[in-house]
Design the sequence.
């Protein structure tokens, strides 16, 4: 977002009627030249409507670089970006260059605007999103800077967190023996990864620490009771949250890592309705996350739920890992599943430096042009193999079963067998790993030892339901719902005068959708359908 060069999407021209309606959401204020309307680091700030005068948007000076003026906003323009919708604190500053008259639109009023005025909602949302995308590529990215070893699992976790939440940031890989200017701050290789927030270092940074500093962690709001808590931010969870919020339910979405689930790590989804040329999981989740913000969903990540309890016949408590509690009238569990691992020596060693559970651009950068091994026999393994091969990586696809088409779509099977860059090994297993600090070789029982800079593991997942022991689960841990519930304490259903609703678990007003539910199809489109359908049952339960 360079000075003077905002395009019409970032700085839309409004009609008189649109401007008057927009001003109706604001409160008038006057500021002198040099006064700040908000500063970087402010936890709460407003959308600023410039009525007269000029406001400049500034990336504050950092210890290694002077401030940068990113844009100047004149009359009938507004100052703000996407963080206003997701609760993020300000990472830029805004100050008046001359005596200026403005109107301040609070976050509460901005959410009301989004809910009540479709025309203004589209105009403002497009502008905020376009500004965020431009800021990601400019000097504003230095306000959140990650430093770490390229092969570090913790460094990758920070990058994945920031990319999933679409945060403006910059990542720089360093060698432990070449710390450069960072060593001057007294930090060492043992302190990696480091997150610089407005130039201030957080050593041994984690997504949770960064989220706390950015204002993205859940903060209880007095005695608030929300209508719906959705636990898990994959396709099912995002769909549930969007439908719930769009239909008037106050909605909170929690994810232990960041929105997206396994779908966000899928390089290309080719059988999703409406995308004849395919869509990456990252793009699909990114648009869904933006849609959630549009409808007022409060998204918190990383935010792990660790306990669930009924308070009485009408309320439920969700306890978070840090001890905070969210009280809700209904819950939809869409927590998905955890990646399975191969039981091999040195597997934990190489999880930091060569083993991956996703194949996106982030992982591709670690193995570009190098040979890799993909393990798995379902669609995700096939899609990953094609993506890696198309980007210059020779691929060994290892499938335990003898029939490649048993769990994989036929269009993928055909493309895999036709691709000369991919060697398919059926009836095979990975039996060993080798290398120094980095993965260098993989041993396949039917082939022998092959060179591999990365091993991509897609052998399924276990449902993330260990914390839900009070709910009825099948022997594999998947949640039973509706008529599938195996045991039903009759007393609480008799009090309600009904049987479990579709997608409802053995605890009233607690629902399950997506991969975590017994009998689900384990497909992105099916998860979206389940998440939205579960909301219909939520309405019925709350109405009763």
Sequence:
């Amino acid at each position: 977002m360079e000075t003077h060069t905002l395009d019409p999407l970032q700085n839309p021209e409004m009609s008189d009627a649109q401007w008057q309606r927009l001003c109706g959401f604001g409160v008038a204020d006057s500021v002198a030249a040099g006064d700040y309307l908000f500063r970087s680091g402010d936890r709460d700030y407003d959308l600023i409507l410039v009525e007269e005068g000029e406001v400049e948007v500034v990336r504050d000076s950092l210890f290694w670089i002077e401030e940068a003026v990113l844009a100047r906003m004149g009359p009938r323009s507004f100052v703000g970006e996407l963080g206003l919708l997701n609760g993020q604190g300000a990472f830029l500053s805004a100050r008046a260059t001359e005596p200026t008259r403005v109107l301040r639109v609070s976050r509460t009023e901005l959410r009301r605007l989004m809910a009540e005025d479709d025309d203004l909602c589209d105009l403002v949302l497009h502008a905020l999103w376009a500004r965020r995308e431009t800021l990601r590529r400019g000097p504003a990215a230095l306000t959140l800077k990650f430093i770490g070893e390229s092969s570090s699992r913790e460094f990758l976790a920070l990058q994945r967190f920031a990319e999933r939440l679409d945060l403006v940031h910059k990542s720089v890989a360093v060698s432990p023996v070449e710390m450069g200017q960072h060593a001057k701050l007294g930090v060492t290789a043992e302190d990696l990864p480091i997150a610089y927030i407005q130039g201030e270092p957080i050593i041994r940074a984690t997504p949770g620490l960064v989220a706390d500093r950015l204002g993205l962690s859940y903060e209880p709001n007095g005695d608030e009771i929300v209508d719906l808590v959705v636990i898990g931010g994959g396709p099912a969870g995002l769909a549930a949250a969007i439908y719930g919020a769009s239909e008037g339910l106050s909605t909170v979405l929690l994810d232990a890592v960041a929105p997206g689930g396994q779908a966000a790590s899928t390089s290309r989804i080719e059988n999703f309705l409406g995308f004849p040329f395919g869509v990456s999981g990252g793009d699909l989740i990114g648009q869904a996350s933006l849609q959630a913000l549009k409808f007022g969903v409060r998204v918190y990540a990383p935010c792990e739920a660790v306990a669930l309890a009924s308070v009485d016949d009408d309320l439920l408590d969700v306890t978070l890992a840090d001890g905070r509690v969210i009280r809700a009238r209904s819950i939809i569990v869409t927590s998905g599943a955890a990646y399975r691992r191969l039981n091999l020596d040195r597997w934990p060693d190489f999880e930091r430096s060569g083993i991956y559970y996703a194949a996106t651009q982030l992982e591709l950068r670690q193995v570009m042009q190098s040979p890799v091994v993909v393990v798995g026999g379902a669609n995700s393994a096939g899609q990953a193999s094609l993506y890696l091969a198309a980007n210059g990586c020779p691929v060994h696809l290892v499938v335990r079963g003898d029939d490649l088409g048993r769990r994989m779509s036929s269009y993928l099977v055909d493309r895999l067998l036709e691709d000369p860059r991919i060697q398919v090994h059926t009836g095979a297993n990975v039996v060993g790993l080798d290398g120094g600090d980095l993965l260098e070789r993989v041993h396949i029982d039917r082939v022998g030892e092959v060179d591999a800079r990365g091993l991509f593991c897609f052998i399924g997942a276990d449902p993330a339901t260990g914390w839900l022991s009070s709910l009825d689960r099948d022997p594999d841990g998947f949640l039973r719902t509706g008529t599938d519930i195996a045991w039903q304490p009759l007393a609480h259903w008799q009090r309600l005068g009904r049987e479990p609703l579709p997608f409802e678990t053995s605890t009233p007003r607690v629902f399950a959708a997506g991969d975590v539910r017994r009998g689900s199809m384990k497909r992105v489109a099916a998860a979206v359908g389940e998440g939205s359908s579960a909301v219909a049952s939520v309405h019925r339960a709350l109405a009763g």
